[in-house]
Structures are given as structure tokens and as C-alpha cells.
Amino acid sequence: MRKIDLENFQVATSETARDINRRIVLNLIRKxxxxxxxxxxxxxxxxxxxxxxxxxxxxAQRWVTEGAVGHLxxxxxxxxxxxxxxxxxxxGINVRPSRTTIAIAGLDxxxxxxxxxxxxxxxxRFLADLIQRIRNMMASHPEISYEGIGVALPGRVDVAxxxxxxxxxxxxxxxxxxxxxxxxxxxxxxxxxxxNACALAELWSGRHGESVRNLVTVTISEGIGxxxxxxxxxxxxxxxxxxxFGHVTVQEDGPxxxxxxxxxxxxxxxxTAAVRYYTESTTNSRNGRNGNSPLTFEDILRLAEQGxxxxxxxxxxxxxxxxxxxxxxxxxxxxxxxxxxxxxxxAWSRVGPIVEGELKRRSPALAGTRIVxxxxxxxxxxxxxxxxxxxxxxxxPLVA
Length: 400
What we know:
Layout: H1 14-32, H2 37-44, H3 48-60, E1 64-69, E2 79-83, E3 88-95, E4 99-106, E5 111-118, H4 123-140, E6 145-153, E7 156-157, E8 164-166, H5 178-185, E9 189-193, H6 194-205, E10 215-220, E11 224-230, E12 233-234, H7 265-269, H8 271-281, H9 297-305, H10 309-333, E13 337-341, H11 348-362, E14 370-373, H12 380-394
Parallel strand pairs: 3-6, 6-9, 10-13, 13-14
Antiparallel strand pairs: 1-2, 3-4, 4-5, 7-8, 10-11, 11-12
Helix pairs in contact: 1-3, 2-3, 4-5, 6-12, 8-10, 9-10, 10-11
């Protein structure tokens, strides 16, 4: 049961009912397309006149388009409706400490265009560069009707202000991306933690089954993020800081974390941790490097694939700590599914068995939770940014 908050509630109005009906029709079109108005009426239970009014509004707003005409033995021939994936679009921005990816996607989350920029350590310069890149991309695709911008950040976002308030791996403080981006583009902007965005995308995709209501994503990159869908709802906590399991201590007196603590999960099981393990274990500082460039996690993956013993040991050590943290999530949250996102999944044949071994050793509740590794080539973090906008139109509205 969801308790009604008598200090902060919204009564149901005729406009609320219209909004709910609109989202129902939009979701039915997405699920059954191509679909006729008559079929929408049958699927939804709404009057045909109501369905017609809603679909005409969706067509006018370019969310939906009319397609082929059906054939019936008698009566009026139906016109089939589709989501307008070619004309309606969403801008997604995935920010990481080293690089930021900007994309334009259709309503089917298919990417139409992408580009990458270096994430400037100076947040003001970064914001100026980002705005110019977005303007240029929009100008290059004038045929698209933009529905909004989704931004995924490697840190926590304040629920009330949408400001980035905790991002040790970025080094930015109290950054407002939402207001400048909205002012520059005249589009609505949704800003969210990357792990939360990935969790919403996994729920949105339906790939784990429509009955799954408890799902956790773990993003493994420069740090570790956790996004939680519990009882069908994204859990943010009172201020947006819920889910910072990456900064729970898993090794007493362990390596120093960028948050200021020692032995945090991300300091022991992230990409950064694997690079550190390898560097500490090799005496030749240039071993495995490409010229004079810094060693990267991609280098570790490549070296391990080539049979480099030190790289393999670094990956295995990372995997042990990764399993320890996932066991903590299983024991504490008991989700149906845990989805892993990150480059480490490219080496899952090596890493996976070690993680599974740690889970069996540490978590007696393992049998009820499936562990799913995603393919980095599908760009789950970037797809999460698109979902941030889609959920505002397709998801159930927040009332009461």
C-alpha cells in the first residue's frame, strides 16, 4: 500500500484523468503498433470518441503518426497508428569523468546521431562546450521535433534542485546543469544519477519480464553506482543520495577513496581499482602502456586477453571485491534481478565465475536473484538518458 502524503498531495482532477488516459493510449500504441483507433478502444476500455480525441492530440504533437489503411469486409477502413520514431526525438547526455557522449534518439531509443567530447575538469568550460555541441547537433537535424533532454551523471543529484551534489570522480560541486541547458535549448531537462537512469531503462525495456518489480543496476566504471527499483518505484531517498553503496567500506584500512574514506567498494572493485592493482604489481611503469599515455582499464582488458599474468591477477582481484559488494546488495535488498553495466562485462567469461563464487560464499539468499551482465556495445548508460525523458510521457503520473 502506498500511503497518501497529507502534507504534499495532488487531488485527482479532470486534467489528471486526461493525462492518465493519454499515457495509457501512448503505451498501447507503443506495445501494439501498428494499431487502429478501434483496437485502442478495445484494449483500453475507453470510449472511441475519447481515443480519437487523444490520438488527434498525439498526432498534432508529433508523438504519433498515421500509416497504412487496413481492409475490412465492410464498414470504414481503419487507419493504423505508430509512434513517430523518425520525427520525434530526444537528446541524451552521458557524462563520465574522461569523456561525455551526446546522442539524438528516436522514441524507440534507436540512436540517430552521436558525438563525444572530452569532459573538461573545469565545470564552467565543460558546460559552455556542452551547450555549443548540443546546439550544433540540433541545427544539423532540423527535421526532428525535440521532446526533451536526459542527462546521466556519475554522482548524486539533489531531488529538490536537480543539482549535482556528490561526484567524487568528477570533482565538481553544486553544479546546476538543468537551468543553463533549458535556457539554451528551450527544452525540458531531466538530470539523474547514471545508475538510476540505467535502472529505469532496464525496467522500461521489459526484457526481464513484466512481473519484475525489484531490480538493481550496478554501474562499474571509474567508480561504482547503484540504482534501485523496489516495488516498481525508483528509490532516491529524501535528498537523492540513496544507493551510494559504492562508498560503503568493504576493506578495513583499504585504499583511499576519492570521497575521503578508505576501503570503499568502488576503491576496491571499480575500473580505477583494477588499473591500480596492475600498476602496483608491475615494476616497469611503461609495461602495457601505449607510448606515454596513461594506462587505462581498456589496456587491462586487452592485456588480460593476451594472457598477461599481472593483468589477469588485477581482473581477478577486482572480481572478488565486485562479488563481495553484490552479495551485500542481494542480502540487503533481495531483488529479483541485478543488472551489471560497464566495460568489465566484456571479460565476463573470466570475471563472472569469480563473482558467482563470492556470491555463493557470502549470500545465502542468492537463489532468488538473477545476475545479468549487459553488452557495453548497446550503450546502456546512454539509453538510460533517453528513458529519463520517455518516462515523463509514458510512465504513470505521480498523484497523491
